[in-house]
Amino acid sequence: MIKINENYNKLQASYLFSDIAKRVTAHTEANPDQSIIRLGIGDVTRALPDACIKALHAAVDEMANDGSFHGYGPEQGYDFLREAIAKGDFQSRGADIEADEIFVSDGAKCDSGNFQEIFATDATVAIPDPVYPVYVDTNVMAGRTGEAKDGRYEGLVYLDATKENGFIPDLPKTPVDLIYLCFPNNPTGATATKAQLKAWIDYARDNKALILFDAAYEAFVQDDSLPRSIYEIEGSKEVAIEFRSFSKTAGFTGTRCAYTVVPKTCMAYTESGEKASVHALWNRRHTTKFNSVSYPVQRAAEAVFSPEGQAQVQELVSYYLKNAKYIREQMESLGYDCMGGENSPYIWIDAKGDSWELFDKLLNNTGVVCTPGAGFGKCGEGYIRISAFNSFENVQEAMSRIKDAL
Amino acid sequence: MIKINENYNKLQASYLFSDIAKRVTAHTEANPDQSIIRLGIGDVTRALPDACIKALHAAVDEMANDGSFHGYGPEQGYDFLREAIAKGDFQSRGADIEADEIFVSDGAKCDSGNFQEIFATDATVAIPDPVYPVYVDTNVMAGRTGEAKDGRYEGLVYLDATKENGFIPDLPKTPVDLIYLCFPNNPTGATATKAQLKAWIDYARDNKALILFDAAYEAFVQDDSLPRSIYEIEGSKEVAIEFRSFSKTAGFTGTRCAYTVVPKTCMAYTESGEKASVHALWNRRHTTKFNSVSYPVQRAAEAVFSPEGQAQVQELVSYYLKNAKYIREQMESLGYDCMGGENSPYIWIDAKGDSWELFDKLLNNTGVVCTPGAGFGKCGEGYIRISAFNSFENVQEAMSRIKDAL
Predict the structure, then answer these.
(1) Contact A269 B1 (CB under 8 A)
(2) Same fold for the pair B6-47+308-405 and B53-306
(3) Which of A158, A202, B85, B342 fits a 20 to 30 Å CA distance from B188?
(4) Spatial CA neighbour of B194 closest among B242, B228, B237, B169
(5) How distant, in Å, are the alpha carbons of A72, A308, B315 from that of A115?
(6) CATH fold for the domain made of B6-47+308-405
(7) What are the b/e assignments for B268-302, b being 16+ CB within 10 Å?
(8) CA-CA distances (angstroms) from residue B116 to A144, A337, B111, B160, B404?
(9) Is the dihedral of CA A357, A363, A368, A372 positive or negative?
(10) DSSP of A254-284, one letter per residue?
């Protein structure tokens, strides 16, 4: 008899964004005349940079001829892209990352969900709260938790991010093995200073722990004193993996390309305490279960690092940050306490009450879709997240409707 | 202390195709003047069908404008593609599969590697031998095996495919829960009749087992009496999942698109014996750990089902089958016993001795790269696989060199 992975039965409710989609569909059906403005899911809305479009067309033309056709590529990604990433995203900022430490993939969601597979099932996992649901759910599926109780899974160590600690979690009070961090943070928009990250690096080194650092939003960092990569922090290369994506920088949410940095100096341990290379483990997993990213898409990602690509991406980021600034100003003018929106496309807003209630109120009265903070964890209760990913015109319209309604 | 998934330590050697690549690189460095002809890894060599190229360009143009841009798509794939697949690949052949039973993905390797995640760790797994290494390796990683001993993992039930049984494994003698099957087979090129598949379906129904059916090579079936999908067999929709790919049909190895069919009637069981929907489990896994396939690539896959696309794909398949026929004829004329090559792009050749030895002999004396059967399992020892994926000119040249050398 084929039995299921019973851990799936522990999973609470369905995936956050599916819930939102259902409520939006129901609202649209009931109110066909009201236009919906989506500031919920963090999905970009503007066209791909022209440099990427040109690279895509050129690569598609290569695929049209036997002589220039590309079949299977290296599972880890083509050297042209890995080298462009290492140089453009790390070496240029003083972080000593080599091309062969880059694993190109089809999404940071996939990587941040899959990476835990290479570690022991009994690893103690620390996860911030509020948080991107994928970190939690994938560890539940893998059997690293007990049952859910009062909105939290037994066995996980939750790292509370609250107004009191400025949305930067304190170090855990009990020993943990695997630590998820995300800065600029999704959903709070909070950023960590170099000193704050250094404390986590020191903790990981002292405890032989490993940090999975999600830097999907690094391009939004405008304050030069803030780190954009964890590898700007001394000692990180022994204890930290970094997830990156082209989704939010170059608008690749529907084009699909991301990467994970796994330094060769990064170590985990066998049961008997011997060092084991995390790079070798991930390479084995990646080459066995993945077959690389579409060739034209890798060429498009490479184009992000051209001078034109860099200028176009910067323009996109600035555009969304202008939206973010506007949203934060408007919500603050309405008396709402806000976090984020300065070095992040997300504004985390104190709902002054229940978060799904404010979500429903905004949806029903204004047609504006945000994300209820409760969907991101217990500490997200009482907040909503508004995303800056939309046109400035739509953001203005949304804020005008909200001003009228609240 | 972050401990590794110790199951990774059970994995034997490195991935088959990496080993081959290393030997080829060494040979090339030692013999820079000899041209290499690759008939090893099953990678297509001919350009994408024109219908796909046109669809890719058109979709890239959509991505170039805010108004037609596509961000995140549905994790399961766009309806336009799921509907084209259900209609074109199943309903048109009398198999009653609905669009919402199709999960679009970036590769059959990923799907066939990931699918086991939703089942219990103590499931007893039956895997053919010889076999595509991903089925075995991913179950080792998941902890469903003991240590390797004499080239086999303890705890797995191996289904021997030998000359004696015509490379169609017998039903297992001990109860199993999860069964991997692949027809047309990789690596042997063997095909199963409807009656042969029916026996497996009946076994699965009688034992509440589940079949994971890999049909990546179905387009090569020319004999109309042979099934191209397991869903042509009565009763299969309760006990079988099917993996499909555009890689070998439309040449998508470097473009990346595949899909998995999970009928809603397919059931697994909880520890207490209650039915659980495999569709619901896979949907949860797929939406949590995957974010769909690149939009332009989905449009290219859709174009495969247009009248032009279908004609162009048929032309590609016929081209490779002409190669396959030629390889088989030539090897048989040299006195080698062959399987496959008629309804399959692979020819499975009795090496009349050690399979790595014949691999090395062909590489060193002729520059032709094949795949040693031993890389596919114990029963692969004594065979080599030659792939028909190359130009007819290269295949002719390879066979001419082999004739001279052997």
Answers:
(1) yes
(2) no
(3) B85
(4) B228
(5) 23, 33, 41
(6) Aspartate Aminotransferase, domain 1 (3.90.1150)
(7) bbeeeeeebbbbebbbbbbbbbbbbbbbbbbbbbb
(8) 18, 46, 9, 21, 46
(9) positive
(10) TT--EEEE--TT-EEE-TTS-EEEHHHHHHH
pLDDT tens digits along B76-131: 999 999 999 999 999 999 999 999 999 999 999 999 999 999 999 999 999 999 99
Low-confidence ranges of chain A (pLDDT < 50): none
User: Within an 8 Å CB–CB cutoff, is residue B207 touching chain A?
Assistant: yes
CB-based contact, B258 to chain A, within 8 Å: no
Q: Where are the domains of chain B?
A: 6-47+308-405, 53-306
- Residues in chain B with CB shorter than 8 Å from the CB of A121 are 5
B141 interfaces chain A, CB cutoff of 8 Å: yes
Report pLDDT for B176: 98
d(CA B125, CA B97): 26
Q: In this structure, which topology does domain B53-306 adopt according to CATH?
A: Aspartate Aminotransferase; domain 2 (3.40.640)
Would an 8 Å CB–CB cutoff place B12 in contact with chain A?
A: no
Per the DSSP assignment, residues forming a β-bridge with A255 are none
- The dihedral of CA B334, B336, B342, B347: what is its sign? negative
pLDDT digits (tens, 9 = 90+) for A382-406: 999 999 999 999 999 999 999 999 8
Mean pLDDT of chain B: 96
Q: How many residues does chain A have?
A: 406
Q: Which among B15, B18, B119 is the nearest to A3, CB-wise?
A: B119
Instruction: Enumerate the residues of chain B whose CB falls inside 8 A of the CB of residue A74.
Output: none
Q: Does A290 touch chain B (CB under 8 A)?
A: yes
Name every residue whose Cβ is closer than 8 Å to that of residue B148 and which is 6 or more positions away in sequence: B10, B12, B154
Residue B401's identity, in one-letter code, is R
At B406, the pLDDT band (50, 70, 90 cuts) reads confident
ipTM score for this prediction = 0.96
User: What span, in angstroms and rounded, lies between the C-alpha atoms of B263 and B96?
Assistant: 9
Interface of B with A in 268-287 (CB under 8 A): 268-271, 273, 276, 281, 284-285, 287
- Short-list B275, B89, B92, CA closest to A2: B275
| Residue of A6, A18, A256 lying closest to B271 (CB–CB) | A6
C-alpha span between B49 and A273 (Å, rounded) = 53
Cis peptide before A345 (omega within 30 of 0): no
A115: number of Cβ within 10 Å: 25
Taking contacts as CB-CB distances below 8 angstroms, the residues of chain B near A123 are 2-3
Contact B57 A53 (CB under 8 A): no
> How close is the nearest chain A Cα to the Cα of B224, in Å?
29
Residue B58 at interface with chain A, using a CB cutoff of 8 Å: no
Residues of B in contact with A69 (CB under 8 A): 45-48, 251, 254
Give the tens place of pLDDT for each residue, B97-109.
Answer: 999 999 999 999 9
User: Which residues are CB-contacts of A191 (< 8 A; sequence separation ≥ 6)?
Assistant: A183, A184, A185, A221, A223, A226, A343, A344
**Concatenated DSSP letters for A125-158?**
EEEEES--HHHHHHHHHTT-S--EETTEETT-EE
Distance CA A111, CA A214 (A): 10
pLDDT computed for residue A15 by the predictor: 62
